[in-house]
Amino acid sequence: MNTIIASTWQEMLRRKMLLITLILTALFLAVFWFIADTVGADSTAGGDLLMQYARRSAILSLGFFFGGFVVAFLAIFSSFSVISGEAEQGVLQSVLTRPIPRWKWYVGRWIGYVSLIGAYALILFVAILLITNVHAGMTRDYGDIAVSLLLFLAAVPVLVSASMVGSTLFSGIGNGVFMTMLYGAGWLGGMVEKVRGALPVEPDVEATLSRIGALLSLIMPADGLNRRMQYVLTQGAGETIPFLTGGNPPSNAFVWYAGVFAIFAFGLGLWLFKRKDF
């Protein structure tokens, strides 16, 4: 299994996908530094404490709005053709003829993607927090920071598990489209919640929007985990940018649901892979 994990890392490096992501991330962090410096220009010079808190929340919201997207698309486009693509090229057939159980190959691939993308997500999380701390200060509640980090990283196994399920069912391109639309549905659910919280609407309309947003978020919970992470990190002060952090944050029950979703998707993908003919 260690060989499969190492080959997954080598494949991502060979395709230069991770390298391109790191270069673009460095460009984003440079722009984010400038934005944080502009937004937080007066936050360390005394003044209204509530305003300092709001500026910090705004900077974090902007940073993790991008961070959630880049981690999601790195997870999706790294693994969307892991099974169907290699089967079409004949690579998978040659690997599975060796005395290696299918489950070891599948689990090794899963661990390889989750570990490498998780390491990238960790670096991105720390970078956003450090930049925010320089320009607007940061909470010293390390418990909240630890919980936020776990929530940010939790989106990776959710996305990889779902993507590998899709790869057993669809072609590489088909699964890429499927996963993009699936993540888009979850993101739209979050946006519906934010619109509901930001705009004055009638109670019956608000209830309908709430149900629609909750249903879409359940289809793909990755964006909901990101919204919950921002809420924990800012303690609900994200209302300063309604269309980024508005609406009610996902509950603890939603976080548990996301964990069950990842486990179920992982088990379903493994079961389908073991039964699939190549």
Automatic annotation (TrEMBL):
Record has Heme as a keyword: no
Transmembrane feature ranges: 57-77, 110-133, 145-162, 169-189, 254-273
Keywords: Membrane, Transmembrane, Transmembrane helix
Residues making up the signal peptide according to the UniProt record: none
Top-level lineage group: Bacteria
UniProt keyword Membrane present: yes
PANTHER family listed in its UniProt record: ABC TRANSPORTER PERMEASE (PTHR43471)
Protein name (record): ABC transporter involved in multi-copper enzyme maturation permease
Native organism: Saccharibacillus endophyticus
Lineage: Bacteria, Bacillati, Bacillota, Bacilli, Bacillales
